[in-house]
Design a protein that fits this description.
Length: 128
Amino acid sequence: MDAHDFVSFSLSKAVTPRSPLPLPQLVRYCLADYAKALEAAGCIMVGHIKGVIEDAESPPLFFSITSLTGEPQLKGGPVHRDNDLTLIMTVIVSGVEEEELSRLLENTLARYFVSGTDEHEKLEITGT
């Protein structure tokens, strides 16, 4: 893999928070930990890490990261943590192999959320 090749990973899954922390705070911690894991794995650049947590009744909570060291951005909500939650997320980065990208995301999410069923779509985007 060339360092300038971008890899994309998309995920959609039912989740339940593991912690009683407010959902926005939990999402911020999760995203910050994922960025640290990506950096440790050799990630060179973040195209974007974006997603949404939603339930069937509340305004969705959108989130994003556009750098490895920046603060995660959140907008929207409040999502009620007691409802059935769905996490949808897309990651586009360079410098990390597709399998590693997926593994790091799954491991990070598992520290913050209990997963229900999941669906994955993996795409590779090459270029500069």
